[in-house]
Amino acid sequence: MTTMNIAEAKSKLSELVARAEAGEEVVIARNGKAAVRLVAAEPKPRRRPQIGVWDHLNIDVPDRVFFEPDLELEALMDAPIDPTKR
Prior knowledge:
Elements: E1 2-5, H1 6-11, H2 13-21, E2 26-30, E3 33-38, H3 64-67, H4 71-78
Parallel strand pairs: 1-2
Antiparallel strand pairs: 2-3
């Protein structure tokens, strides 16, 4: 446990925060009496990714969109590139 007066704590705030984050209890005193205790905040729980986040849109996308080849795109990929026609 670290105890420090307010004036000293002002100049060492970054250090005190780092100590609190590391699990150390830091007490800041006023006129020699403990005034506040500095402790690490609990981290926010990470949100797990949701599967089907667009289900509320009620859009029915057929599987062929993902699994069948796109003939138009394939034709473009097989076509020769002519820089003069851009």
